[in-house]
Design goal:
The complex is a heterodimer of chains A (130) and B (137). Chain A is mainly α and 130 residues long. Chain A has helices at 6-33, 39-47, 52-80, 88-111, 115-129. Classes of the chains: A mainly alpha (130), B mainly alpha (137).
Amino acid sequence: MYKGQSGMWSWLFHRVSGLAILLFLFIHIVDISLLGFGPQVYDEGIAFFDTIIVRLLSLALIAAVLYHALNGVRIMFIDFWRKGVYYQKPMFAGVMAITIVAFIVFCFFVIGPVIPGVAAWFVQPLAKLH
Amino acid sequence: MRMSTGFGPRPAGGGFETFSWYFFRVSGVVLIFMVIIHLIIMHASNDVSCTTYQFVAARYANPFWRLYDWVLLTLALTHGVNGLRIVIDDYVHSRGWRLTLLSAAGLLLLAFFMLGTITLITFHAPATNLGPACLGH
């Protein structure tokens, strides 16, 4: 396999994240169209978002969106800024750093609400032993 | 590739590819703001499981949010499917498959754009359902 450097990986992640976001978008348009079936059907669909697996998938989506957007900004700096090409590697480091930090922040919002439930799920078998 | 008077190589041919190059960047900038606001409203200002029918009805009572969501839908779909077109261009070279897959991409764009637009236009909450933004669960 061709061992590229950060430029190749940044391109690859941009492509993969873009396709993943597009796939999510198709699913999202369908789930929002459930609005047409009234409150019961729509709210049941939304209750699905409470499940831990969907929350983890949402986090993956958030990571993809963050990276794709930040790297997109980096691409525009490369295209429109005189010194963009010169700084492409440090910009990539910045993109990864901001992506990871913002991702951690979003973790609190998305996983935070279910931590008590998840913790209880771990403790439950021990409680049953007593 | 002809160099423009600016700072980097531009696809200066002037056809659809040039338009596509600029479209990615312009729509991308607009999408950055619109998507971040969308994510904050849905995930951060309240938990996503609170985005019930009531929540949507309260937002869509104001036509601004319907328009906002529609612009977000249009820009995201075109930005994304244009990207899909380029991915197909990169990996698919036989004429038969190119016709098939590029047509499929165009159909996906049309179908999902229609579904999203219809949802946004026809959403009509009965007056009795307009209650608090989050019912709690």
